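User: what does the whole thing look like in 3D?
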Amino acid sequence: MTRHLLVLLPFIALITLATEPPPPAPFDTMMEVLTHKRCMNCHPSGDKPRQGEDSHLHNFNVQRGPANHGVVAVQCGSCHQSENNSYSGVPGAPHWALAPKTMAWEGLSRAEIARMMLDPEKNGGKSLEEIVTHMTEDELVLWAFEPGVDGEGQPREKPPVSEADFKAAVIAWAEAGAVIPDK
Amino acid sequence: MPTNFNLNGQQATTEADPNSPLLWVIRDELGLKGTKFGCGKAACGACTLHVDGKAVRSCSYPVKFIEGKEVTTIEGLGTPDNLHPVQQAWKEEIVPQCGYCQPGFMMATAAMLKEIPEPTDEDIDNNIVNVCRCGTYYRMRKAIHRASQLSK
Amino acid sequence: MSKPKSKSRRKFLIKAGIGTGLLFGTVYCIPIRRKIAEQVNVAESPYLGSTDDPKIWFEVTPDNQIIFHSPKMEMGQGVFTGLAQIAADELEIGIEQIKVVHASTELGNIDPFATGGSTSINSLWQPLRELAATMRVMLINAAADQLGVAASGLSALNGVISGSGKSITYGEVAAAVTEWEVPDTPELKDPKTYKYIGKPTPRVDLMDKVTGAPIYGMDAEMPGMLYGSVVRPSGLDSKFTAVDTTLAEGMPGVVKVIVEDDFVGVVADSYVNAENAKQKIKVTWELNKKWDDFDVEEAIKVGKGHPIEIQKEGSAEKLLEDGAEGLIQSEYFSPIGAHAQIEPNGCLAFVEEDKITIKMSTQVAEITRKEVAKRMGMDKDEVIIKPTFLGGGFGRRLHTPNAIQAAVMSKAVGKPVKCFFTRKEEFQNDSFRPPTHNVLKGKLTADGKIEAISHDISSGDVMHGSPLLPGILQKIIGADLGAWRGGMIQYHGIPNYRAVSWRVKLPFATSWWRSLGLLANTFAIESFMDELAEKAGKDPVSFRLDHLTETKADIRLAKVIAKAAEVAGYRNEATGDRAMGFACSTDVNTPCAHVAEVSIVDGEIKVHKVTCVMDPGLVINPDQVRAQCEGSIIMGMSAVLYEKMNVKNNALYPVIYGAYEMALMKDAPKEINVVLLENSDYPGGVGEPPLGPIGAAIANAVYRLTGKRVRRIPLRA
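Assistant: Here's the predicted 3D structure for the full assembly of 1052 residues, as structure tokens:
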């Protein structure tokens, strides 16, 4: 049995090589992450965050509030601290908050999200370089790759791309001129 | 390593594991039972207390983050001889039924009134999102408005 | 106060009711079962405990306070306050001089039944007044002895006995008594002279509850106490077959891992350590059949279970046969409901060589005591239950296997052990409100009256299987009176009516949930009444009144209906974006009607105002009766608009608040107008009746707005 498999191995490898699609463009790799629920849940178009693997509206009528940090008695920080909490399953990262409404990605195409992200009018006056830094260094952004466990102790789904590949893709995309494909 | 903080105006210290939820340190180690356990998942709000004046759900707050901060629980909000306006209003409107969730609601209300001294019904709807199974919301709303009056 | 022996003992008459007179004789034939069923609906509930000895109910302290040891538990319903009012009046003492506490079972003041079923005030109304009046006479007689004057010349006021130029406090009298004499029951007070009964009185537990006093089971402590945690299954109907505790034993703070035939637990030095260790216990569960929502809904359908006719008048069955001309038929569904009380179930137990001490939130101290004694092989008198305030009851604490678990773990480690459910365990191991399927059939006469109506109720168990009612009584009664509660046709003017209760066994525990079957059954009947009224071309209010008779119960219901329509200004058509819905029912002798004012906001049903008219008979505390109406309306609204447990892949979900959607502040009606009628001089039940009509009142309003009849809870516009 084992010998048979060994004989077959080179063929399997060949087939794999032959059928592997070309690597995705850095833009697509980056967008795989940004459009994942770990990011989208807190980039809503409305005034309520979403949560969970099914991206339902955040329970308990949780609101954006005047400064994206919730309302006075129900601030994000009432429950979310600066790191994930494995007892309660409440996720956490530094400056946990909703993305500002100018960064409302919900319902947008990848190209629209990218254009919004690069627009200093909407991104808080950030240059491309600052955007790259934000996406590759900000702890809240990178929380997506360490999203902890949920209330039942089950690991949250991570984006389909690793943190390293994401960072590399962001940098490659920016270095290649931050081109936004027409699609 | 001990964690030091201020609890209801007094110095408190705990040797608990840094990741222990603050709720259990306050209830079981420091012996203040007014802060309640309802779900342990920051959902029901029964464990709401104040950290540096802001409403926090203590079941989801690791004790290591409390170092040097000020914690107020229902026991520190007011005492039988000197009720906080929120407690006074709760008493006047005869809000509690089973009463178990009420400290959390009072703490959330006190945090809200600090920032919004005269809340509208909509403010109340948005800010007070704890769970009460006895259904005392109707009287609570009246008590919140009354507390606002009493605070003037 | 010492506990001197009383010289004479006398018995108070215990009224016949369920559990006593009614059920004697082995009566298996159907008509008698129907009679029992009908009686259960209107009978006054007896108090089943001993009411022989006033001094175990009332402890007089030297500082002239009376400590009232209540056998009924305070779970939010305000019973401590109502009972204190009743006692204060007959004791001639200020209510502020009474401190109400839960009676420890060692005192002997034990309610062998339970706190529940809206029976506390109703059952104690007579015996408690007699006890308090007797205690007053005992104090006066003792004062007469001590002062050397005739008792006839003495009278009591505010805890002070005076006459013949002398006065002495209750406290002073009691301190000097070595032997009490219990006289015959004196004459009770003239209702005109009540100071507290019937008056709005602030709750006696208010100060504790606004200052966060440690009064609940969860707050209980004993010196040297450890923390226990029990592995509870996620899956339905599962038994553990194997367990590996190796990893758990090495966890920080672990004192002992305990493996019993029926559970596995761990004891540690803190709650967090116990929970952490529990996660490391590997349990293999054996499952029976795999269940999903679909299987439950199929199982629960009318026709699948075992039927018992609970009500029959005329020939409804024949008139409403399949295919009968003019047959109108509708079916209604309600889901599995969770108790979701905020204080999790728990228990603190300390097992010593010759006694077991238990502090906990329970609705059934005596049953808890017996169960623990049996398991631990001790006499029940060696088990002392010290009940605490309940952080919500709602029926959840009528089963207390957690007391056994805490006791077993305490014995294993030789120290007090406190153990309680996690929230997930609460949601998955609740004794749920059973799902129901209700089929209503009806037929109208040419002039738009109901000629015949029938109601088939299919439900999981409520009463059956409960330790509260012994198996023999369950056999005699036959149908599950918890499941069919509220399911009888209450419009006795209909010439032909019939109700049938179908019993279905489900693979998870279903049991008592505040108001039991009333919520789902009234939803079905009262929705159908509106459907029939519309077909008859009649106004829903007058249509209901048209089908009531001149019996006492019907007259009381009619008065409630008319008053609710009047106070709410009931209109049959929508006004702007709002519409009103009407519904009513009688439960535990208390008729209640609601008018709900509803709109649809962003596709969701919004209840703006509820007018509630209820006639509980004699009202002890109008403020707390109102509080029960407000709370019942909001809890009922929560249950019919939002709540639903799902069976997915053999487990119940959701397991946390929020995902288990419940009414929040924003959802509660901004206006609740409660009007109380008192068309009986006896206090009826209060804590559950106002839950009954809320579902249909809302659904009937939604119909006015959308033209769509919603027949499934949770209601969706």
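In plain terms: Chain B has two domains: 3-77, 85-150. The two ends of chain B are 43 Å apart (CA to CA).
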